[in-house]
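Our preliminary data section would be incomplete without showing what the modeling component actually yields. Below, a chain of 238 amino acids is followed by its predicted structure, encoded as tokens that our downstream tools consume directly.
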Amino acid sequence: MEDLLLRGRYKAGDRIPPEAELVEILGVSRVTVRSGLARLVDRGMLERRQGSGTFLIRPPDGARLRSGLEKLETYTVQAERLGVALSSRDLEIEVVGAGADEAEALEIPAGGPLVRVSRVLLMEGSPAAWMEDAVPEEVIAADRVRGHFRPDAMLLDLLVSEGVPVASSQMSIEAVTVSPEGPIGQRLELEDPSAALSLVQTMYLVDGRPVQRSHDTFLPGKLNLHVVRELFEVREIG
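Predicted structure:
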């Protein structure tokens, strides 16, 4: 609903669509819409006026990338869908020796050659995350990455465009505190300690071999994660 308010370019004082219209736009139930509206009212973003409707009194701080854990989709695709401009700062593309964690995740010898891409991800010009991606040099050469990596895209986008058959990923998520004195805090220009989401992800080819390891540190308000789970009926066999 917040993303809708941003995409609709509503400004403070504007009347937002009525409940019935939001049900159709969002494809959810009226109960869900009412619950969402109530939460935004409680947060001071919306105001209900008897007989007049619901009005935006404080626009959202900014669009958030949305990552569903049930589907492998790059942040580039999500940003395009939301109309959010991505870019990079402090971009570095280098050949390095695989550290212990990278070697274990990518199933290569420690010290083996990796192409590492690191940068500050910017959303609408503001720092959103520190990103580090590593891929074995045998998968894609460093010169190829330097020549074709787009600052507004992800390394996964480049691998897919090069025909690398990436099929799935495994991610671990941890809440961390980033210090302004630390390397990530300095790159993100923090003035005070900040909570953050640390996402470590390994990408796999269709044959199950690992091909890319990523470590992203997102600042608050820049990424929403959601999980879809299903309860399957368990039946006895026999």
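Confidence is low (pLDDT under 50) at residues 231-238. DSSP finds eight helices and ten strands in the chain. Preliminary results of this kind motivate Aim 1 of the renewal.
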